[in-house]
Amino acid sequence: xxxxxxxxxxxxxxxxxxxxxxxxxxxxxxxxxxxxxxxxxxxxxxxxxxxxxxxxxxxxxxxxxxxxxxxxxxxxxxxxxxxxxxxxxxxxxxxxxxxxxxxxxxxxxxxxxxxxxxxxxxxxxxxxxxxxxxxxxxxxxxxxxxxxxxxxxxxxxxxxxxxxxxxxxxxxxxxxxxxxxxxxxxxxxxxxxxxxxxxxxxxxxxxxxxxxxxxxxxxxxxxxxxxxxxxxxxxxxxxxxxxxxxxxxx
Amino acid sequence: xxxxxxxxxxxxxxxxxxxxxxxxxxxxxxxxxxxxxxxxxxxxxxxxxxxxxxxxxxxxxxxxxxxxxxxxxxxxxxxxxxxxxxxxxxxxxxxxxxxxxxxxxxxxxxxxxxxxxxxxxxxxxxxxxxxxxxxxxxxxxxxxxxxxxxxxxxxxxxxxxxxxxxxxxxxxxxxxxxxxxxxxxxxxxxxxxxxxxxxxxxxxxxxxxxxxxxxxxxxxxxxxxxxxxxxxxxxxxxxxxxxxxxxxxxxxxxxxxxxxxxxxxxxxxxxxxxxxxxxxxxxxxxxxxxxxxxxxxxxxxxxxxxxxxxxxxxxxxxxxxxxxxxxxxxxxxxxxxxxxxxxxxxxxx
Amino acid sequence: xxxxxxxxxxxxxxxxxxxxxxxxxxxxxxxxxxxxxxxxxxxxxxxxxxxxxxxxxxxxxxxxxxxxxxxxxxxxxxxxxxxxxxxxxxxxxxxxxxxxxxxxxxxxxxxxxxxxxxxxxxxxxxxxxxxxxxxxxxxxxxxxxxxxxxxxxxxxxxxxxxxxxxxxxxxxxxxxxxxxxxxxxxxxxxxxxxxxxxxxxxxxxxxxxxxxxxxxxxxxxxxxxxxxxxxxxxxxxxxxxxxxxxxxxxxxxxxxxxxxxxxxxxxxxxxxxxxxxxxxxxxxxxxxxxxxxxxxxxxxxxxxxxxxxxxxxxxxxxxxxxxxxxxxxxxxxxxxxxxxxxxxxxxxxxxxxxxxxxxxxxxxxxxxxxxxxxxxxxxxxxxxxxxxxxxxxxxxxxxxxxxxxxxxxxxxxxxxxxxxxxxxxxxxxxxxxxxxxxxxxxxxxxxxxxxxxxxxxxxxxxxxxxxxxx
Lengths: 250, 349, 470
Description:
By secondary structure, chain B is mainly beta. In chain B, 15% of the residues lie in helices and 49% in strands.
């Protein structure tokens, strides 16, 4: 399988503090990876660094996507290469409808003009799969959306934009039991041999659905343990204490 | 009495509205009372105001200079508490004073102004410059009682060094005419200036409140909040300007003007300006004006309170958060003053 | 972003259409500068009744006496002695489109007026330079008794309607440029909507300036009688010239008992225009005045639609957006005076400053001593797109009465970095992300405009971002 994402010795700082202290990670096409870890371990930082959030500075190390060094690439160019991040707390924008926004984004990442009616049909199909009311298409982007609705809107964008690498930052949090199932189903339908997943999650329900190939445990800005799906079960049973000690943090 | 133009808006607007400045009575302090200071350790004779000190008007600045002139210098790293009690009576119904308070690096000054009178006519003109070095902390409280017939003009200028914090809390309950003029220069990075004012005005009182803060340093923060109740034929003018100067990246500024109008002939004028030549800022203004919400009154009265009691509770609840910022020694007096003012005014609303 | 790019190219073409100068022959042209002789000449040329000439001369005297308001933006580059106050194209009033001279028709074609016709819009009053050259009111409206004519015609044909209203709301001494207007006014629209008539389609008027150094002083007078309903749209575009241009029109609107008037403006004057326009509405009992105002063009603007809520339960709803780009100083806002009881005021103003432009909100809400029961909400939002620009908010609230409920909010800031990052993470470039967020910011205005104007406004916003970096 192709090497899709390669992170080498990544050091990342924000607000004058180093948050990641040398992370290595490789994701191949067709794979699903899960990153686990306590709050503040640097999980979100890692995903934002891959997406290119200007609030985070890469001080050392490189990020490669499809063999290309993207460390200094702007956010939109990364998106056009096929990188997608489902935000933990997506912003809301009054005045821009969901449909208009996603259509503009689809045009941007695909490089092809999106004809109105085929696009409307595509959006409708994807919304139905997520149990989203069709009226959401004409509502303002995330404006007045509940936490759960925002998360669904992120997955909707993932499905329509169809990226090569989908990074999901706690997409399952804030969702009720039914919604977790719907979202998990959509993620697993999206995932195929031609793309890859990189997830942050606390929920084993999602992990069971996705069946990750690799599980990484990130503590204190370092990956301290890697393994297969069995590692997630172990964390569920025993927590992170053992790894915290391994990272030298009480 | 002569009329004098005061508190001119820094960025004026339509002339025919007559709100760019106020024409208010002026006279000099002829029979000044003496200020009693709790501590004179850091005090010297004479005071040289910064060149850019303008005051409410040139005449008022001069009037303040005719009285006692003192410079207070709080040495670096020192914490000091200073009280000034100024009692004006029939023999000496006026007051004038010009002061420079210099708070050195990392020093802290807590200053309490207490104004007293017996309801007689008089004039009180004060000019004060507060110069805060890096890391200096200043808290100034001001409250009065019995100034019913007086003409007050309180003028100040504030300059802040890096990380300096200044907070002013004033309670204006009396005074026939009250002029407040505050000019702030937030120069040092991360310095702050907070201006809080509470008032109750009745009869034919005129309150003329002026605040003008320049954000010059990065990540500076300002907050101007004025709350009060107007009764009788009282008039309040609020002129506040927050000016975000180019280069004050990361600055935040808020200004708020909340007035409850208790009687039909009250006048309430508000000019909350936001001027801006820097993009990375957050400036906000909010204001509200009007009567006490009927549903609120209804709710309180359904619990057995009289209309007057209910009204007092609503006004108190508006003013309380700011009164609590006053020096503890002044709070009870101000609260009692607010209550008796509301009872006395008894608005017909 | 193929689609967006393509759109922008169209917009460039669209803008260049506006900037084409036509080789027009001028039938009549006054000497530069303003004297009593010129004013008499203008009046004689129009074959006006004496009362109008007297009004002009009185206004001229006022103009010569009055000073320029000290708070006004700098207009020192505006030299009245070099502004021709009156330019009249070599064409008389035409009733039919086909009869218009070809080059003028061609300009209007490119401005899209026949489009508007095709869409069977109610009527078109198009002003070419200082005179109305094309005018058409649909038969149906004539049957309803609606009058929509150019102002010269109104003065001659309907003096009983014009005389009592002309100059009543905006007095010549309102300010210096109002005095100038009354001295030299020329062209404009007159609309009369009889009692109870609902004019279903919006009335539209296009204004253009097309002579180097020509000023434009059109007078608009709209009377909406009891219970009637009308929507008037004023759209402006003008070609670029090197000589400073002045626009000092006057708009007087009378909204009678229970009537509703919606007055929409989308202004895109060329960047050398001084737009010192005056608008004022008088609203009677239960009447509604709705303003929608988009200011994009001009070098300098001073524009503050003024609403007098005279009648009990009358309302004013103002929605405005101002976009100040490089070299522009746009001082705009809203004035409302509440006189009647239980009036209602709503003001929503948004501004955007970019590339060194200055956007100023200046407003006043005055609740008089007898205006018990007034309710109001004012909000001003200003967006700073860089730190070369300027954005000021100068509101004035005067309350002379306790039985009121008024709230005011103002905000100044820039587009949050997180918002730009989020949009870029979906593949939009920084410029595209900003343009989209600004369009979203402006959406309350575009929503209130008819579709073709909303589209034009969004194109104007996109154009401002085309090729600009960060």
